[in-house]
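To the team - zinc ion complex, inputs and output below.
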Amino acid sequence: MKALVFGGPGQRSWDTVDDPGIQDPTDVIVKVETTTICGTDLHILKGDVPAVTEGRILGHEAVGTVVETGAAVSSLKQGDRVLVPAITSCGRCGPCKAGMAAHCEAVGGIGWIFGHLIDGVQAEYARVPFAETSVHLVPEGVSDQQVLFLADILPTGYEIGVQNGGVVPGDTIAVVGAGPVGLAAMMTAAIAGAGRIIAVDTAESRLKHAQKSFGATHTVIGGENAEAEILEITGGAGVDVAMEAVGIPATFDLCTRIVRPGGRVANIGVHGAPTTLHLEDLWIKNITITTGLVSGSTVPTLLKLARDGRIEAEKLGTHHFALADIEEAYDVFGAAGEHDALKVVIQA
Ligand code: ZN
Ligand code: ZN
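Output:
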């Protein structure tokens, strides 16, 4: 089969590799029909994720069809259309039983194994371990594109932004960073009843997307004046929940300055550098700060909302490619700003 193979920092290729086969009785083999590229894949290509070794097939988000099942698999069969989520859940370990598959202990102590610790799904076929406790059947009448982004960024925005942030109806929230995950946080915050949703980004094109399609009620250009503008929108009070969806010190710091006393800062961003936490200002503010990696526990809920037309995650897919042209998709996604791209949709 063909697959997108990591060849070490800066190197990727659409290569011919061996077809995957069943290794464990809880595996299934999925024919990948639709996949996408994550910001994390770009980090891997930069060499930021040393656990990913040369020869690894990348990708951790897919919709496809089951073509083979392991001996222990009874609730999935050939021909089932499934969403393969970023996080694998063995269903048996302590973290999985506690609903925190992000920290599943079955493979390497982390739920994110596709395109990381085992071969991923940017390929014609993929081996999916712990399939019964990990994949989701796609409801009838729902397209691949409607559910593709439920593999990773929608549940990330919902669980790590909205749920960790404790958003309740009527809240005023700010989402700092209007990239795909920030937009997913806005979309799911709207479902959770957020009243005012303030999108903050340095790129005007992203703010336009935020307001047009993802539920933002206000937009603020990131930078020097952002704090003052957000405080003005909230009448000086600050926001109930500030979500960080960039992953740099300046944006995290902004979140801690715009949150109201008693409010919550939900960090979603992937940070590569230390950040100063200004406890000399914050100790008296009664705020809560949360962090996390998605577990995917909300995917069933999001699938229902997609089926019923309550979320339109497909709006994140701005650019479309054939699977054989995945290298071109990487070029576009890697220069997303130039192309006004949010997410790419790659279809077999
Ligand atoms: Zn991802
Ligand atoms: Zn587990």
